[in-house]
Specification:
Blueprint lengths: L8 H6 L7 E4 L4 E4 L2 E2 H7 L2 H10 L5 H12 L8 H6 L7 H15 L9 H27 L12 H10 L10 H13 L7 H11 L4 H12 L7 H14 L4 H9 L20 H17 L4 H14 L2 H5 L7 H11 L6 H21 L28
Antiparallel strand pairs: 1-2, 2-3
This protein binds s-citryldethia Coenzyme A.
Length: about 400
């Protein structure tokens, strides 16, 4: 019994850990960070405020938030030599490859906070990661488009810095639009944690071996890059673009999805836990329409996504399988409207998910009884065989 719900024995057998960070009720479509409903946080909090909540367990006072934000802001600038790493990648390298390498490299540049046992080093590394991530992600985008890197500015907020580092150039200052900043605060909050998903479980498993926090976070980025996981936000836009480019009728595409032999999936739909509408998708859908109008981006793909959702939600194949839109279904439309190329969408997911990974990694390390992760298996292979000389095989 966790207080919130009584777990049946079967569930307990599959549970990989106990945690007090994020609560999901997949049947009811409920998501809470440290007990706060995602709907309230998405609408009222800032991303750094939620990062504080996830990591330390309580919403910060103004003084705590100012101190936390200041420490993060002073760690946004990267070691100059890290730029050489970016310049060594080919132009078409995927931003998630560059980001995973950048985080690993960060650990090499900050070897004085690699300890997993010294709380002061874990705190410093957490702040370093939170500060560097927007710069690492923005530089991955800049190097992919061949534009020069800007420097972060302590006078700007976290999201403002990220947007300016991504879209500003030495020729033209990036004009901060408060509506766009608010939308990205909400988007990053919605991605901030999600209990034991594939990338968070990866972070925990790698961390359980006492690998340093940078190695654990870099592993999380690699797991998240998979199209079945965070990579789905890129795959959704590629799916919509294919439907559009091939002039497919929505019903025609949905019948391809239902034909198992086609191997075609409705990307952005379905979830391991949610068997109801993903509460995050609901919130993002509302922002998509408002932001596309604001940026003047064409609504064609949004209209297509809305028709796709409507068709699927009224089709028995999806109803019987409890397949609903998940967090990735609408995000790509917003990121593209903002000017990000599809290849960069999952780096945005990683930026949002970082505080959750850090909180989960620290929660695991705070447990004095913790053990190294060691999943077992059901062995179904041959046993007790005798070696035969090669000329007798
Ligand atoms: C994220 O875990 C998390 O919390 C992840 C995440 C987070 O915040 O960290 O929420 C982020 O990863 C969201 C998911 C993004 N991925 C996608 O949108 C990719 C498309 N979705 C699917 O690949 C799939 O739904 C998964 C991978 C998300 C879940 O896979 P499962 O567990 O195999 O799905 P399931 O057991 O619920 O499937 C039941 C049936 C199966 O068909 P049958 O064998 O019963 O005939 O539904 C089918 C599946 O084949 N199905 C789909 C489908 N998803 C499931 N059919 C078509 N299109 C889909 N998208």
């Amino acid at each position: 019994t966790t207080g919130a719900t009584t777990l049946d024995p079967g569930f307990v057998n599959t549970a990989s850990c106990t945690s007090a960070i994020t609560f999901i009720d997949g049947d009811e479509g409920i998501l809470q960070y440290r007990g706060y409903p995602i709907e309230q946080l998405a609408e009222k909090a800032t991303f750094i405020e939620v990062a504080y909540l996830l990591i330390y367990g309580e919403l910060p006072t103004q003084e705590q938030l100012d101190r936390f934000s200041g420490k993060i802001s002073r760690r946004m600038m990267l070691d100059e030599r890290l730029k050489e790493l970016y310049r060594s990648f080919p132009r078409g390298a995927h931003p998630m490859q560059v980001l995973a390498a950048g985080i690993m490299a960060l650990g090499a540049f900050h070897r004085d906070n690699l300890s997993v046992h010294d709380p002061a080093q874990v705190e410093e590394a957490s702040l370093r990661l939170l500060g560097s991530m927007p710069t690492l992600a923005a530089y991955a985008y800049k190097s992919s488009v061949g534009e020069p890197f800007l420097y972060p500015q302590t006078r700007l907020g976290y999201v403002e810095n990220y947007l300016r580092l991504s879209f500003g150039t030495p020729q033209e200052e990036y004009e901060i639009d408060p509506d766009i900043v608010r939308a990205f605060e909400t988007l990053f909050i919605l991605h901030a944690d999600h209990e034991q998903n594939a990338s968070t479980s990866t972070v925990r498993l790698v961390g359980s071996a006492d690998a340093n926090i940078y190695a654990s976070m870099s592993s999380g980025v690699n797991a998240l890059s998979g199209p079945l996981h965070g990579g789905a936000n890129q795959a959704v836009l590629e799916m919509l673009a294919r439907i559009n480019d091939e002039g497919l009728d929505i019903k025609e595409f949905v019948s391809q999805v239902k034909d198992k032999k086609s191997g075609v999936k409705l990307m952005g739909f379905g979830h391991r836990v949610y068997k109801n509408y993903d509460p995050r998708a609901k919130i993002i859908k509302g922002h998509a329409d408002q932001l596309l109008r604001k940026t003047g981006a064409s609504n064609a793909l949004l209209d297509m996504a809305l028709e796709l959702e409507e068709t699927a939600l009224n089709d028995d194949y999806f109803i019987e399988r409890k397949l609903y839109p998940n967090v990735d279904f609408y995000t790509g439309l917003i990121y593209e409207a903002m000017g990000f190329p599809a290849q960069h969408f999952t780096a945005l997911f990683a930026l949002g998910r970082l505080p959750g990974w850090i909180a989960q990694w620290r929660e695991q390390h705070a447990d004095p009884a913790r053990k190294i992760g060691r999943p077992r298996q059901i062995y179904v292979g041959e046993k007790d065989r005798t070696y035969s000389p090669i000329n007798e095989r």
